[in-house]
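From the methods appendix. Each design record in this collection lists the tokenized structure first, followed by the designed amino acid sequence. Records were kept in a plain field format so they could be parsed without special tools. The example shown here is representative of the layout used throughout.

RECORD:
FOLD TOKENS (514 positions):
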């Protein structure tokens, strides 16, 4: 299909960050498209993009099962930027001895990139001689093929981090410039699309709200749709956009699962009312959620059990309303982690992704990331209501009871602890600076001392992180005094004997524990 507005083709080679590349280009103001390798050649022949980006991926280029990129892409002389696996493919295609699986070249996490000043690449113009970047690869380009030059290294020059062939219009970087942890402020991608490819800005965020409403109305046609509103940024913003556009064709409802934060139900009602959403609250399934989810301690099974009851509730509402469609506030992050987008691997099952309920699903914001929806919320006048709220998973506190069956008693412990931590952070003006705060109960009991007596109780772990898109996160470190205040408040509960703090990055961890 021909699309004159698309200037950059992104070839998805299985990276968790492929959609982050598209998000980054959208942020810079350029429209792009993501396609599988097998679909890329036919699309290029019809559309002639100004540039091509080859994503990263978990495979090895020398593996027969690796994504097969058409070598004909090189014949168009269109500028190509290879990222991680993409760079390795560019090297391997020109010299099969260039890529090696070597221990010294492995890199997972932050890495210091040194740009070679004697031949500063156009790709790195505007950057300092060194930057901190995010790397995630096992294979490395050991030697650059004939016709290429090295433009960046790491580990005292031992690892090749970037290469290029200006004559062939090929550029490669081993690290990931698309993620927020790479400290280049999107300059690398901007240099590629603007200066190397000659693209012009053609994406306006001002049109986003109108496009979401019009596209959804077009898909729905004469049908009727239901939408579950959690009170969070995504679903509330979406319901506020679609309400005026769909009118009586849309039914909005809120499911009280029993796993909500303290005071959350009343807060959601208030938000919905002020946002102009006619919201019905359904709470009759609370005990069933506890019973089903509490039957297992396995993270994936818990999500599946929650998903079952969640789906039953949706079915009942849909039948009563006579719905033909179901609208979901699913984000790109959800699809990526669910292994439902491109070639990305399954990280965790999401309760609201591809529910098989006999209804047609519409995901109007599945192309977007959390920070983008927050921007839409601001433009839609919802900033005061929800755009500053911390995210909360659909299964809620059920995912924050780890290694022990969920019970109403344990839910109440975590609920109160979550509230106390939030109040302490707000008192110190830190809550809004933290992207997400997770308070979880660890099911392994340990010995403690209270009132000069032995107790055998649970541990709570407090996790505070910062991020832009939740594809990668880093710890938000709390100072000693605040940590001690949190420990003092939470350990007053008779069944809690320890409080710990977790600031592990993503990867290797995920934002939530389950």
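DESIGN:
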């Amino acid at each position: 299909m021909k699309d004159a507005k698309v200037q950059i083709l992104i070839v998805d080679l299985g990276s968790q960050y492929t959609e982050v590349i598209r998000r980054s280009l959208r942020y810079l103001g350029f429209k792009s498209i993501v396609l599988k390798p097998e679909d890329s050649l036919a699309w290029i022949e019809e559309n002639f993009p100004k540039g091509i980006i080859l994503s990263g991926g978990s495979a090895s280029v020398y593996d027969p099962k690796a994504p097969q990129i058409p070598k004909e892409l090189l014949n168009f002389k269109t500028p190509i930027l290879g990222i991680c696996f993409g760079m390795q493919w560019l090297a391997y295609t020109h010299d099969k001895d260039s890529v090696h699986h070597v221990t010294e070249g492995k890199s997972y996490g932050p890495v210091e990139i040194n740009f070679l000043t004697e031949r500063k690449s156009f790709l790195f113009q505007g950057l300092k001689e060194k930057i901190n970047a995010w790397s995630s690869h096992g294979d490395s380009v050991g030697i650059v093929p004939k016709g290429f030059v090295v433009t960046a290294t790491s580990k005292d020059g031992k690892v090749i981090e970037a290469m290029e062939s200006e004559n062939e219009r090929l550029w490669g970087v081993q690290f990931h410039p698309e993620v927020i942890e790479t400290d280049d402020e999107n300059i690398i991608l901007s240099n590629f699309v603007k200066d190397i490819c000659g693209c012009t800005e053609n994406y306006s965020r001002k049109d986003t709200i109108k496009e979401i409403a019009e596209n959804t109305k077009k898909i729905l046609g004469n049908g009727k749709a239901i939408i579950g509103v959690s009170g969070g940024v995504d679903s509330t913003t979406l319901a506020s956009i679609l309400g005026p556009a769909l009118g009586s064709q849309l039914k909005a409802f809120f499911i009280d699962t029993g796993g909500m934060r303290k005071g959350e139900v009343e807060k959601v009602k208030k938000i919905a009312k002020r946002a102009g959403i006619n919201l019905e609250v359904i709470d009759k399934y609370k005990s069933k959620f506890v019973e089903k989810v509490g039957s297992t301690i396995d993270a994936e099974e818990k999500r599946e059990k929650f998903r079952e009851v969640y789906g039953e509730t949706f079915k009942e509402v849909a039948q009563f309303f006579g719905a033909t469609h179901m609208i979901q506030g699913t984000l790109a992050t959800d699809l990526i982690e669910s292994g439902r987008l491109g070639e990305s691997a399954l990280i965790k099952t999401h309760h609201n992704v591809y529910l098989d309920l006999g209804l047609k699903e519409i995901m109007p914001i599945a192309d977007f990331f959390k920070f983008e929806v927050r921007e839409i919320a601001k433009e839609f006048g919802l900033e005061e209501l929800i755009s500053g709220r911390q995210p909360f998973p659909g299964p809620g506190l059920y995912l924050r009871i780890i290694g022990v069956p969920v019970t109403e008693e344990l839910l109440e412990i975590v609920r109160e602890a979550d509230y106390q931590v939030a109040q302490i952070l707000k008192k110190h003006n830190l809550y809004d600076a933290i992207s997400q705060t997770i308070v979880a109960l660890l099911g392994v009991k340990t010995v403690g001392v209270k009132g000069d007596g032995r107790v055998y109780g649970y541990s709570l772990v407090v996790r505070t992180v910062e991020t832009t898109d939740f594809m990668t996160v880093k710890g938000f470190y709390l100072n000693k005094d605040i940590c001690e205040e949190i420990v003092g408040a939470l350990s007053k509960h008779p069944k809690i004997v320890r409080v710990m703090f977790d600031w592990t990055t993503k990867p290797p961890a995920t934002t939530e524990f389950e």
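APPENDIX NOTE: DSSP finds 14 helices and 21 strands in the chain.
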